[in-house]
Amino acid sequence: MSKTIIIIGAGLAGLSAALQAAENGCDVKLVSSFPSERAQSVMAEGGINAALNTKDENDSPEEHFTDTIKAACGLADPNAVWGMTQAAPELVHWLLKLGVQFNMSGYDDVELRNFGGQKKKRTAFAQSDTGKQIMTAMIDAVRRKEASGMVERFSHHSFLTLRLCDNICCGCVIRDEYSQETVELPGDAVIVATGGMHGLFGNTTGSLSNTGEVTAELFRLGVPLANGEMIQYHPTTVKCGGKRMLISEAARGEGGRLFAMKDGKQWYFMEEKYPELGNLMPRDITAREIWKVSHESEVFLDMTEISDEIISNKLSGLADDCMTYLHKDIRKEPVSVLPGIHYFMGGILVDEQHRTPIQNLYAAGECCAQYHGANRLGGNSLLGALYGGRVAAKSACEQADVVDLSCATQIDFPPASQISEIKQLNKVMQETMGVVRNENTLLNGIQTVQALTGNLPLLGMAVLKSALARKESRGAHWREDYPKSNDDDYLKTTVARFDGKQIQISFVPVPERR
Predict the structure, then answer these.
(1) Rounded Cα–Cα distance for residues 375 and 260 (Å)
(2) What pLDDT, on the 0 to 100 scale, is given for residue 410?
(3) How far is residue 471's CA from residue 466's CA, in Å, rounded to a whole number?
(4) CB of 354 within 8 A of CB of 83?
(5) What are the pLDDT digits (tens) for 224-249?
(6) 398 class by beta-carbon count within 10 Å (0-12 exposed, 13-18 middle, 19+ buried)
(7) Number of CB atoms found within 10 A of residue 416's CB
């Protein structure tokens, strides 16, 4: 008898898990509140990393591993990262066979571009619409599984809570957003792939559908949060319609240059301060430098020196977006930029096999803390979602213990947070969890958030307390009152746990490489 695997979320990690689980002979139930075409994965622009070494630079998965661990400031599980970087070339070739329209170099070589934190060209891309191209191919592949009956899709359904038998997951409860009907969905394993905690802040570059509510409910149920303070600010974003519009790192990879005016002249501060990588320094460093300079002068991204051919062949989507939403022709004028919240390295605590501490519960993609540590390399998000979905599905299909699906305890639904409280939470999180943080603002934020009710404020409190407890600066977490890193005390994963009454923060050593 085949196992039933329930997957919550139908973005890249969810689709990857669905394909893998179906190929493993499991019955798949794919639950999502929005169609896959509206998933945040579609918005990814820059590319996907893989050491294909088509540029004769002697690149290798080992160097990709080294760059990833370095960017992560030592906080990523080296065994998990090794598996991901070793698998990356095969995954990109698999995507190519699936029909992804990557830019090509010559007849059959995938074109590669430079990306931040990496000295060698290893980012495969499809102009500046890589996520859209990959998701289109993945959606088609999953639809074939749906047509054959191997995948059953529950569209316009929202996750409410888990079905639990003691500490064993045996399914979940979902709600039909059209009829408002509540449905108990039994299953042998649940894989959560619901994206980052963007709803805590509200003004990120991410999808508004990635509210973080699922992670918040799991946290309420006792699932730990790891490295919640590690929030990536993308260096180059623009305010647009109440959110932040991303100016892809691909623009700098193709020759875009950051500058500010100093003494009446253009000052290319990244090139002056970091001559080796210049505008392609890791995102945490670049975001911090822009934040500092912006206090004295407006910061611009100049793409006018990029040739029309490159813009047409590699950055056409970005150019169109800037013209449509910003009324800026990047061929003729620079764009004013500031850092904006873009990615959550922290999330649900999982091990190398994407297992959570609750038996038969797994997580993959941006919702979990895996592969990126304190700072994510550009191009590793799509890779981590694709690879992580596969690993989670393999683990669930092979390891999930069959349980009595009728033994679930009484379902407990938490009260929903009020819209007014969510807006207040967003404001507090924006003010306290910025590019640079300090104890006073964090304590003030905690005092305000603890008066709010509901799951999201509880999750926000876990993030704030994690940031307060890490008394050092590392990667995306920068404390101006503790500006140096402290490996003796904090080269460890921050773990926040809720016991039903209070949040406890602890630090757990990063696994050693086998």
Answers:
(1) 25
(2) 62
(3) 10
(4) no
(5) 999 999 999 999 999 988 789 999 99
(6) exposed
(7) 13
- 3-state SS of the chain: helix, strand, coil percent to 5? 35, 25, 40
CA distances from 381 to 50, 300, 377 (A): 12, 25, 8
3-state secondary structure of 190: strand
Q: How far apart are CA 385 and CA 371, in angstroms?
A: 10
Taking the C-alpha atoms of residue 130 and residue 100, their distance in angstroms, rounded to an integer, is 9
pLDDT in tens, 397-426: 999 877 776 676 667 776 777 888 999 999
Short-list 79, 358, 383, CA closest to 219: 358
CB 442 within 8 A of CB 420: no
Instruction: At 475, list the tokens.
Output: 């990667």
> HSE (CB half, 13 Å, CA atoms) of 410?
2
| Per-residue tokens: 119 | 């000295």
Place of tokens 């305000």: 448
The residue type of 111 is: E
Question: Quick check: helix, strand or coil at residue 59?
Answer: coil
Nearest residue to 283 (alpha-carbon basis) of 463, 42, 46: 46
Amino acid identity for residue 446 in this structure: I
DSSP state of 405: T
Comparing CA positions, the residue from 10, 48, 54, 61 lying closest to residue 126 is 48
Determine contact, residues 250/497, Cβ cutoff 8 Å: no
379 conformational bin, left if phi > 0, alpha if psi -120 to 50, beta if neither: left
Backbone angles phi, psi at 489, to 5 degrees: -105, -25
Element (H, E) at 172: strand 168-176
Burial of 411 (0-12, 13-18, 19+ CB in 10 A): middle
Whose tokens are 């139930």? That residue is 29
pTM of the model: 0.95
Kindly give, in sequence order, each residue whose CB lies less than 8 Å from that of residue 176, ignoring residues fewer than 6 positions away: 156, 157, 182, 183
Name the 3-class secondary structure at 188: coil
**Tens digits of per-residue pLDDT, 457-491?**
999 999 999 999 999 999 999 999 999 999 999 99
Pairing status of strand 4-8 against strand 189-192: parallel
Of residues 413 and 102, more confidence is placed in 102
DSSP state for residue 402 in the 8-state scheme? P
Q: Catalytic: which of 122, 283, 288, 437?
A: 283
Query: CA dist 287 to 222, 294, 420, 482, Å?
Result: 34, 10, 30, 18
Strands (DSSP E) contained in 381-424 are none
Burial class (CB in 10 A: 0-12, 13-18, 19+), 265: exposed
Q: CA of 377: how far to CAs of 113, 202, 390, in Å?
A: 14, 23, 20
Based on the residue annotation, tell me whether 283 is a catalytic residue of this protein.
yes
How many C-beta atoms lie closer than 10 Å to residue 417's C-beta? 20
